[in-house]
Amino acid sequence: MSVDFVLVEKPDSLAFFRQIERIYLDSFPVSQIRPNKMIIRMLEFDPNYYLLVAREDYFIVGFSLLYAFNELNAAFLDFMAIDKTYRGRSIGSELFRYTLNVSRRLVVNSIGVFFEVERESPLEYDMEGFKYRGVRFYRRHGAKVLENVHYMGVSPRTRT
User: Is 113 domain-assigned?
Assistant: First the structure.
């Protein structure tokens, strides 16, 4: 079976989201997971937020969520994950390349794609290797660390 990559215009069913949700929950530490309703709402109402999927037949085996910042000439890769039973088959690499190509079409005069991955430290990464696995993957695909970049954000769980 071959895997194809699709920019999703309109998700067609709750079962579709359930497949993505399962991959999402299996792939990220609890501290990084946002409420599903927030992601679904952004996909429904924010024209700059995009869902890309990797699928084998009609079974979703991976996804990425991309935010296009045309006014900044850049995109932000919010999340990307591959079903754990499909890892090690280069699907993540192909999805990442597809996501980069789509971002170039969505963002005029794109300077690139930004994303956040916590730096690994032998004493810091969790037992499942979330931090280490992500950093190693992106470095292998040419990502560069932006040194001395400090930013602030509000946790989705924080009330303002």
Answer: yes
